[in-house]
Amino acid sequence: MRGVTEAPGANDDVPCRLDDPSGLDAPPRLDDPSGLDALPLLDDLMPWSVAPLRLGRSWIVAPDTRTLRSRWDRLVAAEGAEREALFRPSRARTTASAVAALPGQRTGTVRWAREPGRCPDPVRIARGPYDEQWLLPDHRLIDTARPELWRVAGEPQLFAVEPGYVPGATGPALLVTAALPEGRSPAGRPGRIRPLFRRPGGREPNLAPGLLAFLGKRYGHEVDALEWLAWTVAAARPSPAGCRVPVPADPEVWAAGVALGRELTDVQARGALSGTKPRLPGGRRPYVRVAVPARPGTMTYDAGDEALCLDEGRISPVPVEAWEFSVGGARVLDQWFAHRTAPAEPGSLEAIGPAAWPQEWTSELLDLITVLALLGAREPERAAFTTGAVGREELRAAAILPPPSGARRPASVLDHQEEGPEGQFMLL
Fold first, then answer.
1. Which of 47, 63, 220, 339 fits a disulfide with 403 by CB distance 3.0 to 4.6 angstroms?
2. Same domain, residue pair 426 and 376
3. Is 18:24 a contact under the CB 8 Å cutoff?
4. Can you list the positions of beta strands (E) in 182-272?
C-alpha cells in the first residue's frame, strides 16, 4: 500500500546546494517551509506502509487480560438475539463470517455462530501513543486486521507509526513500538504503520533499495536498518504531505542524531533494544504517595508539588514534561486515563471490566510517566537537526528515489502455510 505522497512534479525544481564533491546546491533549512518541502518523504524512504487496523468492536481490546476473558465467556453464554447484540455485527464481520486465521495465531476459522471455540490467548497491542493494551487475536472478531503486519511481527521487528498530521501539534513525528500497533491517531487523523523489516526474523529492511549503501558511503561506515531508524526518530519532521526526513551532509551530525535516536527509540519501545526497562535517575522516579482509589473519576496535575492526582490518589514526582507530553494534539496521559475510566453502555460487553482499579494499572502508569518524562526531557534536542540536510534531488541522482513499485508492497511468503476459512489450508 502507498502512504501519503506528493502530487507528481511537486517541488521538482527546488534547488539544493552542498559543500561537498557532489556539486549540488546548498542544503535546505528545515526552519524554512520551502526547505522542508524539499526534503524526502518517509513514504519514499520506507516505502512499504500499512493503514491502521480497524477493530470494528471495542470490546475485543482492554487494558487487562482478565477483562477480555470475562467478555468472551459472557458472549459465549448468551443466545439468540442477545448474542447478536453483544457481538455488535458490522458489514465486515458478523457471527456468520468465515475468514482465515491471523498469521501466527491458533484461533478458530469456523463460523463463530456455529463454533466459537476457546477464548484465544490475548496479545499485546499498542493502542494509541505509548499505551499498550491487550487484544483478542481472533480474525472473526476484527473488521480489518491487516494480516500482512501479523506475518512480520515478533522479535526483532519494530514498527514505526507515523501519526496523522495536525497543524501546530507538538511532540515526536514518529512513534516506535515493538508491539503490534493499532495505528490510530489520537486526533482521529489517518496515519501509517511502517514495519522496519519486510520479512520475519529481521530480514530485508523496509527501505528504498540502495539507501543503506548510499548512507554508508557518505558516512564512511556500514549503516544498518536500526541506525537508520534511530536517525529518523531523532530528525523526522511532520508536514502536510507526511513525515519528511533530512539526510545530513555532515557525518558528525548524523552520528549525533543516531546517538540521540537510539536512546529515544529504546525508551519508546520500553527497552526493546537495550533489554533494560527505562528508568529515571534516583530521586526523580515517580512513586505512589497516596493510594489510587477504587474508582478514580478525574485526573489532574498539581504543578507546585509535581503530583499527578487521581481523585485523592497522588503520584509524584511527575515532571511537567510528562504531564504535558502530547502526540497529534492530544495529551498522552489524558488518553491513557480515558481508555480505562470512560463510561460504557450498560449491559454491553464494553461495560465488563475490573470491579476496582487494579494494581497492575498503577504499575503501568508509573512506567508510562517514566517514558514520557524521559522523552519530554530530550525533545528539545531534536530541534538541533534543522540545517545541513540533503534534499530529494541528490537521492534521485543516486537512483534511490523514486523507489520501485515492488518496494511498496508486502514481501511474498512462499513457504508459509496458514489456515483459511472453515479449516482449509492455503499456501502463501
1. 47
2. no
3. yes
4. 192-195, 197-199, 203-205, 247-248
pLDDT in tens, 64-102: 999 999 999 999 999 999 999 999 999 999 999 999 989
β-partners of residue 123 are 135
C-alpha distance from residue 247 to each of 25, 43, 388 (Å): 14, 14, 8
Query: From CA 189, how far away is CA 378, in angstroms rounded?
Result: 26
To which residue does cell 523507489 refer? 403
Asked if residue 423 belongs to a domain, the reply is yes
**73 with 118, same domain?**
yes
28 strand-pairing partners: none
The 8-class DSSP code of residue 20 comes to S
* 121 backbone dihedrals φ, ψ, rounded to 5°: -70, 120
pLDDT, tens digit, for every residue of 239-291?
999 999 999 989 999 999 999 999 999 999 999 999 999 999 989 999 999 99
| pLDDT of the residue at 422 | 57
Q: What is the mean pLDDT of the chain?
A: 88
> Nearest-CA neighbor of 422 among 39, 114, 36?
114
Residues in the chain: 428
Task: Copy the grid coordinates of residue 249.
Answer: 551532509
On whether both 207 and 235 belong to a single domain, the answer is yes
| Alpha-carbon Rg for the chain in angstroms | 23
Counting the structural domains of the chain, the total is: 2
Question: Residue 104 belongs to what domain range?
Answer: 30-279+395-403+410-428
Going by C-alpha positions, the residue among 109, 116, 63 that lies closest to residue 86 is 116
- Would 23 be classed as within a structural domain? no
Instruction: Tell me, yes or no, whether 101 and 163 share the same domain.
Output: yes
Asked if residue 333 lies in contact with residue 375, where contact means CB atoms within 8 angstroms, the answer is no
- Pull the grid cell for residue 269: 519501545
The whole-angstrom separation of Cα 385 and Cα 235 is 6
**pTM here?**
0.88
- Peptide bond preceding 172: is omega within 30 degrees of 0, i.e. cis? no
**DSSP assigned state of 141:** G
